[in-house]
Amino acid sequence: MVIAFGTSILSIIWGHMSSDQIMPLIVGVNVGLEHIPYILIASSIAIIIHEGIHGIIAKRKGIPANYIGFSPILGGFVRIGNKTLKRPVQEIRVAAAGPFINLVAES
User: What span, in angstroms and rounded, lies between the C-alpha atoms of 22 and 16?
Assistant: First the structure.
């Protein structure tokens, strides 16, 4: 769901698709109720990968990632330790890692 939407947005930006070809997923209207388990599984996988990359990059930069949590409906989070960063670029890299992996997965 998220990947399809992101791919559609990128296709519009790159000129491969027009904006009138995007249709939101509305369960019960244009997506049947029988698809809910598949949507939840796909969302869960995307959230786990996204948040996991935040945690992996934090650990590689020496920042303690104490806890990673997720919910297929509410999203996810990584609880980062209270370590003071010597370089703010480390925090930027950790924050950018999740969206970066989303773009890689959508390509």
Answer: 12
Question: Cα(90)–Cα(83) distance, rounded to whole angstroms?
Answer: 12
Q: Which helix (H) or strand (E) holds 67?
A: strand 65-71
Instruction: Give pLDDT tens digits for 68-101.
Output: 888 777 788 888 776 666 677 888 888 889 888 8
**pLDDT band (50, 70, 90) for residue 2:** very low
Nearest to 44 by CA among 88, 16, 2: 2
3-state helix, strand, coil in the chain (%, to 5): 60, 15, 25
- Tell me 31's DSSP state: B
| Amino acid letter, 75 | G
81 near 66, Cβ under 8 Å?
A: yes
Are the C-beta atoms of 64 and 80 separated by less than 8 Å? Answer: yes
